[in-house]
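User: For a reading group we're discussing how well predicted structures match intuition. Take Large ribosomal subunit protein uL1m. Before you show the prediction, I'll give you the sequence so everyone sees exactly what went in.
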Amino acid sequence: SLRCLQCCPNSQADLDGFPYAVSSSADDFFRCLRPAKKGSQKTKKEETKKKGTTRRRPLMSKPVDDVYLTWLYKRPSYDVEEAVGMLKKFQELDFTNPRQYVYINVFLDMELKKKKRVEQFSSTVLLPYRFTDETNKVLVFTENEQEAEIARENGAAVVGGLELIKWILEDEIQVDAYVAVPEIMPKLIPLRNKLKRKYPNTKRNSLGRDIPQMLKLYKEGLHYSVKDEDVVETRIARV
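Assistant: Thanks. Here is the predicted 3D structure of Large ribosomal subunit protein uL1m, as C-alpha cells, for the group to look at:
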C-alpha cells in the first residue's frame, strides 16, 4: 500500500525516486484522496472575500476618437424629441419600414422602506393616441340577455355564461382578455386557476357593470407587465 509524502510528511524514504512510501495499510493513502472538509472550504471563501474584487476605473464621459471601447464610456442619453429624430433618421438610412414599432424599456425603482420590494405587477392602459389597428379578442361573462346584447354591439368576441366554462378549461376557447359582471362571479370559481391573472378582477377593471368601457379598455388597451424584477418592456408607437 502507498502513502502520499506531500500529505504525510512523516513518511520515510522514497521508493526509487518516486514520491511514495511503503505503509502498513491502505487507509492512510485513500484518506489523502478524500475531498476536503467543509471547514477548509469556508476558509477558502473567507480568503477570497478578504482579497476583494478588482475595481474598474470610473467611466469617461465622451470619446475623443472615432473608434473606441464602448464599455469605457458612459452611455449617452437624449431627450425624447432628439431620440425620436434619431430613430427617424436611422429608419431612412437603413431603408426599413416607416410603420415599424418603437419600443421602450422602463426601469422602475421597486425598493420600499424596511428592505421590502414592490411585487411584480401587470396592467392595461388606454393610450391617448392609438398606433396600431390590432384589437384584442375579449370574452364577456354574463347571463343577462340585455347585457349580452350590449356586449355584442360593442365588439365582444365571445359572450356567454356557465356553458363557456367547459370550453375554456378544455382550451376550445382562447381569447386575449376576460371581463364579467358581478352577479356571475361566484359561478366562475372553477376558472380561477386556469385564467390566473386574466381572471376578472375589480383592481384590473375587468369586473364591473360598465360593459362598453371594459370592452374598450381590453380591446384597444396596451397590456404591460414587470419582468426581471423591475423592467417594463413594451411598444409605445410607430416611427
